[in-house]
Design goal:
The protein has an eight-stranded antiparallel β-sheet with strand order 5-7-6-1-2-3-4-8. It has a two-stranded antiparallel ribbon with strand order 9-10. It folds into two domains: 4-119, MutM-like, N-terminal (N-terminal domain of MutM-like DNA repair proteins), CATH 3.20.190; 133-253, Helicase, Ruva Protein, domain 3 (Orthogonal Bundle). Strand 3 and strand 4 form a beta hairpin. It has six helices and ten strands. With 259 residues, it is an alpha+beta fold. It binds a DNA duplex (14 and 14 nucleotides) through residues 1-3, 6, 51, 65-69, 81, 99-104, 143-145, 149, 152, 154, 161-164, 213-215, 226, 247-250.
Length: 259
DNA sequence: AGGACTGTTCCGCG
DNA sequence: GCGCGGAACAGTCC
């Protein structure tokens, strides 16, 4: 489910919930993680790399990747799809919830984690500091593939998933099927300029103790094109939002303002 | 019943 | 070797 903004929200939540506490006990709830050992220890903090959340506890680094349906929430009562629980001091318990059981939870030493992340060959972070227009031109300008699926390539830039990729093309007025190499420097200028404000807005709107799925109505209304098939374009007020398919994923666009 | 789904990796093809 | 598409992972929901 989560893209960069949602992972960042969960990072802030985990940071706040864990502050001043220590992990008392890790409790697997799913056979997938039955044998996973997370040693107890003082909670040291978090950072995010792309869509991955790193949680440092004691001498270990936990890497959480939520894939399609994972999320971490405060435990209040038993709920479906809980795959593991983190029991913290002072009666705080966090639940790792994941409907489709795609998510990853890895325990490593900080050195192993560093090696793991380097091995990923991921591109730079597009947020909070904007990547300059020239960077986008250099990284994408020679690719023959369509711009929307290109934006989702973690080896180019991290954190952008299927929703943000449609939203970015829309905000920049760029047709998602345009080949990267056909975009002008003005296109890249608009594109680079809309990324940080867009991510800021998603974080502001969605911040809270639990991130919500678009199709559950939570946060869904905040997007300008994603999921708005056959509705009027909120950008130009003229076009009707169209849904197409690109490399197996849904893309939404306004044929009037995205050329 | 069939298809879709906010991710990532791997495989095979040209 | 690269660029690209499709499959696979898994489980539900519409």
């Amino acid at each position: 489910m989560p893209e960069l903004p949602e992972v960042e929200i969960m990072r802030r939540n985990v940071d706040a919930w864990g502050a001043g506490r220590h992990l008392v006990r890790f409790v697997p709830k799913d056979p997938k993680w039955q044998d996973l050992v997370v040693p107890p220890g003082p909670i040291r903090g978090t950072f995010r790399r792309g869509k991955a959340l790193v949680w440092n506890i004691g001498d270990h680094s936990l890497l959480l990747h939520f894939r399609m349906t994972g999320k971490i929430v405060q435990w209040h009562e038993e709920r479906r799809y809980t795959r593991a629980c983190f029991e913290l001091s002072d009666g705080m318990t966090l639940a790792f919830v994941d409907q489709r059981r795609f998510a990853d939870l890895l325990v490593m030493s900080p050195v192993e984690l560093q090696r793991y992340l380097e091995g990923k060959k991921w591109g730079p972070e597009p947020w909070p500091d904007p990547l300059p227009p020239e960077w986008w031109v250099n990284r994408f300008g020679n690719l023959k593939m369509a711009v929307k699926p290109a934006l989702m390539r973690a080896d180019c830039v991290v954190g952008i998933g299927n929703i943000l990729a449609s939203e970015i093309c829309h905000a920049a007025g760029v047709h998602p099927e345009r080949r990267c190499s056909t975009l002008t420097s003005e296109d890249w200028l608009r594109l680079s300029g809309c990324v940080v404000p867009l991510i800021d807005r998603v974080i502001d709107t969605e911040s809270g103790p639990e991130i919500a799925y678009v199709n559950q109505g939570g946060g869904g209304s905040m997007f300008s094109v994603y999921g708005r098939s056959r509705k009027g374009c909120l950008r130009c007020g003229v076009g009707v939002v169209q849904q197409i398919r690109q490399s197996g994923r849904s893309t939404y666009l306004c044929p009037n303002c995205q050329k």
